[in-house]
Amino acid sequence: MNIALLATTAGAACMAMIALFIRMKAIKKPASIKKIILPPFFMSTGMLMFVYEPARLVPLQIIEALTVGIIFSFLLMRTTSFEVRNSDIYMKRSKAFAFILIGLLIARVIFKLIIGDAIEVAELGGMFYLLAFGMIIPWRIYMLIRFREIEKRHHASIDEPASVLSKKMVK
What we know:
Layout (H helix, E strand, L loop, with lengths): L2 H25 L5 H11 L15 H21 L2 E4 L2 E4 L3 H21 L5 H39 L2 H9 L1
Antiparallel strand pairs: 1-2
């Protein structure tokens, strides 16, 4: 086995564990628009890798990476939900998130084994970055829309008088 493949896989596994830890910790705190919007902005600094010539991709590679990312984002959207607890909105815990991360890690290793000789390491890194970026943007947009819907419903239920709410509960 290639030592570079082993080292990068170990690094990716560590990053996945950190992501899981951060996600599990974040679930314990109320969600907010800021917490939904900021991660893609922080991640966007990684686009600077494309300043480095070997990391630049051809249009077909960009389309492939973004398409796979968007497909994975549908899995994240399907497993993401919110709940209202103690007048705050929280993300519900999803076991699927861990499986999706592990699936991405396995896919990364398989892709590196299959096409690692045909594509430079920097190019492959750029493709996986775009895959992740293509996954997080639609997912976070979905999360923002769902959060706003729940927030609007929650505030509407707080603002309604008790008599109106009791009538709605009877129906």
